[in-house]
Amino acid sequence: MNFNWFRKKNKKVPPAFFLEYEKCILNTEKLPINETRFVVFDTETTGLDKKKDRVLSIGAVALINNTLNVNDSFEVYLKQEIFNPETVHIHGILKEGNTTKITELEALKQFLKYIGNSVLVGHHVGFDVAMINQILLRNNLPGLKNKTLDTEYLYRKSKHTIYKNTLPEERYTLDKLCDELNVSKSDRHTASGDAFITAIIFLKIMSRLDKKGNLKFRELLS
Question: Residue 37 in contact with residue 24, Cβ under 8 Å?
């Protein structure tokens, strides 16, 4: 018996919003850096366990051609199935309160529509991507397909460019990068606030890396 035909016939088709997301990823053009849309994003979570903890809010802002467009921004708060009172003093998000909250699935739909085929940027971006991927997994969907850039890695790269690899490797928190690059820490520990701060940091790092104006995207990944 041909089981491949049976599997294909019974394979669950992803919902329309995810198919639209996949379609735009597949149709992504290879653009120069100054035409590429970067989305800098951050998540506030109930904790650091990627499987047990949950996303409380997602904040993002877009950049094109070294310009931060505050009108092209994103922010959602999610309904809390899991509540950890120990982390409230960090992010300030209460289980109830007056803030409008939406379901994980609705947040996912809105986020995927917002990011489209953009390059995702974040500080320790692997964690935020993993948290979004867990939401996708809980909805029986594959993980994010966007290219990603991490500001800690890029900052190290910029220091190596300046000091010719003579400095030892260091770990950089977002606060430490704010201090090193003279970026205000106002509105820290909110998803939208941290996304905005990270976007400013990203712009400053990019100006260091692209002094000659001929930086190629592949150089950011290598």
Answer: no
Task: Give 10-51 pLDDT, tens digit per residue.
Answer: 568 899 999 999 999 999 988 999 999 999 999 999 988 998
| Number of domains, the chain | 1
Res. 83: pLDDT tops 50 = yes
Taking the C-alpha atoms of residue 42 and residue 191, their distance in angstroms, rounded to an integer, is 5
Residue 184 lies in a domain: yes
Tokens 């690899």 correspond to 165
- Which range of residues forms the domain containing residue 193? 36-221
| Cβ-contact 148, 121 below 8 angstroms | yes
Residue 60 CB burial class (10 angstroms; 0-12, 13-18, ≥19): buried
Residue 213 in domain = yes
Q: Quote the CA–CA distance of 79 and 96 in Å, as a whole number.
A: 9
Instruction: Name the CA radius of gyration of the chain, rounded.
Output: 19
* Inside any domain, residue 100: yes
Compute how many other C-beta atoms are within 10 angstroms of the C-beta atom of residue 168. 4
**Is 145 part of a structural domain of the chain?**
yes
